[in-house]
Amino acid sequence: MDEDEIDALVERLAEEAKAAARRLARLPTERKDAVLRRVCGALRGPAGDALLEANRRDLLAAEGMALPEAMLDRLRLDRPRLDAVADGVEAIVALPDPVGRVEDSRKLPNGLSVSRVRVPLGLIGFIYESRPNVTADAAALCIKSGNAILLRGGKEAFESNRAFAAIFEEALEAEGLPKAAVTLLPTVDRRATLAMIRLVGVVDLVIPRGGEGLIRFVSENARVPVIQHYKGMCHVYVDGGADLDAAEAIAVNAKVHRPGVCNAMETLLVDRAIAEAFLPRVSRALLEEGVELRGDPAVCALVPEARAAVARDWDTEHLSKILNVAVVDGIDAALVHIERHGSKHTEAIVTDSYARAQRWVREVDASLVLVNASTRFNDGFQLGLGAEIGISTTKLHAYGPMGLAELCTLKWVGYGEGQIRR
Amino acid sequence: MDEDEIDALVERLAEEAKAAARRLARLPTERKDAVLRRVCGALRGPAGDALLEANRRDLLAAEGMALPEAMLDRLRLDRPRLDAVADGVEAIVALPDPVGRVEDSRKLPNGLSVSRVRVPLGLIGFIYESRPNVTADAAALCIKSGNAILLRGGKEAFESNRAFAAIFEEALEAEGLPKAAVTLLPTVDRRATLAMIRLVGVVDLVIPRGGEGLIRFVSENARVPVIQHYKGMCHVYVDGGADLDAAEAIAVNAKVHRPGVCNAMETLLVDRAIAEAFLPRVSRALLEEGVELRGDPAVCALVPEARAAVARDWDTEHLSKILNVAVVDGIDAALVHIERHGSKHTEAIVTDSYARAQRWVREVDASLVLVNASTRFNDGFQLGLGAEIGISTTKLHAYGPMGLAELCTLKWVGYGEGQIRR
Fold first, then answer.
1. Which residue of chain B comes nearest to A367, CA vs CA?
2. Per-window interface: A 212-231 vs B, CB < 8 A
3. Cβ-contact B128, B210 below 8 angstroms
4. Crossing angle of the two packed helices B133-144 and B29-44, in degrees rounded to 10
5. In which band, very low, low, confident or very high, does the pLDDT at A272 lie, cut at 50, 70 and 90?
6. Domain B234-377 carries which CATH code?
7. For residue A286, what are the contacts with CB-CB under 8 A and spacing of at least 6?
8. Gap between the Cα atoms of B317 and B311, Å rounded
9. What CATH number belongs to B3-97+119-230?
10. What is the percent of chain B with per-residue pLDDT over 70, rounded to a whole number?
């Protein structure tokens, strides 16, 4: 296909998905849940086997590409993982329908009854990498929230993504609904992504979720609204006077509980006042967990196992058991460091000071600001949203986890009896 | 200045404004209100006279440009208009501070207390045309909501805008605050606009408010998030069986109460079932108010005064006493017309049918959907927000009037006692 053909194809698919979005927006909850229940049944049955077969084809192709083992692991599906995907879809069925929820109802002095009603955004463009199970999570969230979804997955997972999309298409058709409500772009050509993010008036929102290159490409080229699910350059700052047992437990948890995710800690900041007391013990605990430490000179002086950090480290989301560690002169220096190197994702303080806890909460600009808790809590499930399509580091619309409610907007509705402006 | 110099200047001004935004974000309500009270005092005193003087220079220059009288009128300031601006700023002082308002508080099963706290967006880029009083409204709303503002006004109002900005700068300095919190770009070169809308990480949101050319330029070139305050292609649909007195009053009010604003009706849709009964009487009432009617063939057959509408009319925001009128085959055809020609601003039905009222509310995609009321109610004051920076037709973040709350975002805050993920 040449570029014009790709543009035409993407436009046609997006128009069909948009028409499907109009149908989905008006569906009662029962119909949407019925689709998702069919998807669960398919995942647990023969269609699941076909999906695992497709996944094996992806893995075979990937072997030729010399991908790192971490990426192969993200790509790999098996029965337990597929059951976990089905469990996730079932959990979405169990969540309340956000559509039609009424907020801010009021009666104006002239008798007009106005309120804000939650309605689907329309057509969501979703651009993501590697893990194919994200296809099912994102599609299920969009169906439940009355949106259609146009998916552009990673090329390594193309066959798996296609099999997931086919399961949704069949479930939609079996319920008499347009299968275009879940549309996977049939090409991973970058031109298709470009076409998709420029369809003003058709695609209502684009969510890029992945690495720096992907996010930058989308942000620089999109003509439609974008909510970035960007990197998590998360910090834990251990303040002088902190409970060192709690600080150690939080630091270890934030780094090693799941190092490859965006809410893992990348940099530990330690107040100079307690550096001598805290750094050796926390380093021991981290080293025991296999963490590699990259420290500033003050850290390296106290921790012989630490190697010297380079400038780039303070801005690098390692997504592995590598941790940057710096000694700072109290909360002021910690705030400056985060202002400069943070990514507005998750920032935690460990402190016993009421005043500094309050200051932290007020002054740190991040989607989740924590006192005395692990950064790992920035997650839609943990925060009570039930499920999430990702974690937004864009301040507009949704700052932090995006759940069903955040896949909707609020429209104003007014019921009158002939009111006019005087 | 060449393009590189303009880029450098805009970047420096924006960085200064952003630093000011960090100060403003933490200010107690009293300090922000004190700034605004000083602005009111200045507007009502000698600084107001200087402002009127600056406005006269703009008007003089405009005379040479052969601008239409409507535009000259929007540009013109006098004592009563300036007092109205001061009244508007005082009204903003009286509104509750949105910053720090807590929502969705909950205690997670592990004891972590989480909530969402309203915080300023940061630095708002505001691009607008003609009316200089918008400078004061927008700056006052941003200060009250803890945001800094970077203003790019129309070239016709440059001197007036500069005088408004100077009043805010003096008020900020008198309160010991950085005057960069209200920064007017010192050039109206389009390159400056371009530089401003590409400052990713510095400008947190750009709001373009104006004509189609401006909105398109910003949307196509911005790298930072944009909320469009776009045109109002608003419709009133008069359904068969509607109370014709109410329908006539609503149609006349929606068109003539203030024809030059975005929530004025541009197209009247009449159900074929009542066309013969309703069109002659509503036309008479509209013609009496000096409205020019542009009808489809069915309308022209019933209303001799109507001239034939051309295809372009159905998409034209006349912003004057020109009204498009069409006969449609019931609510289905009305919905199709609006889907095709509406601008997601305001859409009203006049009906006596419960079912069709509910269907209208459910199926029309617009920031305000009305039953039996004039489109003129889509307004932050009318809907109870207290004040507005404009009306968003972007579905993300704020759909409809943007008030103080919509100039903020919600950040998550969690207070723990050492919680870690298990």
1. B411
2. 219-220, 223, 225-227
3. yes
4. 160
5. very high
6. 3.40.309.10
7. A251, A252, A255, A256, A293, A323
8. 13
9. 3.40.605.10
10. 100
What ranges do the domains of chain B cover? Answer: 3-97+119-230, 234-377
Distances (CA, A) of B80 to B44, B86, B138: 10, 10, 19
Q: Distance between CA B159 and CA A78 in Å, rounded?
A: 68
Alpha-carbon dihedral of residues A74, A79, A83, A85, nearest 10 degrees? 30
- Do residues A263 and A234 lie in contact, with contact meaning Cβ atoms separated by under 8 Å? yes
d(CA A417, CA A411): 20
How far is the C-alpha of A252 from the C-alpha of A257, rounded, in Å?
8
Average pLDDT over residues B149-175: 97
Q: A64-73, A145-154, A205-214, B152-161: which range is least confident on average?
A: A64-73
Cβ atoms B303, B279 nearer than 8 A: yes
Residues contacting residue B343 through CB under 8 Å, at least 6 positions apart: B230, B231, B232, B233, B234, B317, B393
> What are the C-alpha distances in Å from B4 to residues A77, A310, B195, B209?
52, 32, 10, 26
DSSP A309: P
User: Are both A3-105+114-229+394-413 and A234-377 of the same fold?
Assistant: no
Chain B interface mutation, best of A344, A363, A412, highest count of B Cβ atoms under 10 Å? A412
**Phi, psi angles (nearest 5°) of residue A237:** -110, 120
Residue in A26, A411, A419 nearest the CB of B373: A419
Residues belonging to chain A: 422
- Please give the pLDDT value at position A387: 86
CATH number at A3-105+114-229+394-413: 3.40.605.10
Q: Which residues, including other chains, have CB under 8 Å from residue A386's CB and lie 6 or more apart? A: A91, A92, A95, A380, A403, A404
What residues of A are in contact with residue B356 (Cβ under 8 Å)? none
Burial, B295: exposed, middle or buried (Cβ in 10 Å; 0-12, 13-18, 19+)?
buried
H or E stretch including B79? helix B79-94
How many alpha carbons fall within 13 Å on the CB side of residue A419?
22
Q: Which amino acid is at A261?
A: V
Inter-chain touch A395–B223, beta carbons under 8 Å: no
Q: How many CA atoms lie within 13 A of B55 on its CB side?
A: 22
Q: What are φ and ψ of residue A297, in 5° steps?
A: -55, -40
SS3 readout for B223-234: CCCECCECCCCE
Q: What is the ipTM of this complex?
A: 0.94
CB half-sphere exposure, A174, CA atoms < 13 A: 16
Do B323 and B266 form a contact (C-beta atoms < 8 A)? Answer: yes
Query: What distances in angstroms separate CA A270 from CA A276, A298, A386, B143, one per listed residue?
Result: 10, 10, 34, 35
Q: Are B415 and A383 an interchain contact pair (Cβ–Cβ within 8 Å)? A: no
Of B371, B395, B421, the CB nearest to A415: B371
Q: Which of A218, A377, A408 to substitute to test the interface with B, most B CBs within 10 Å? A: A377
Structure confidence by residue, pLDDT tens digits, A114-144: 999 999 999 999 999 878 999 999 999 999 9
Please give the residue that has the higher pLDDT: either B73 or A141: A141
Q: Tell me which residue of B82, B55, B42, B85 sits closest to B172, measured CA to CA.
A: B42
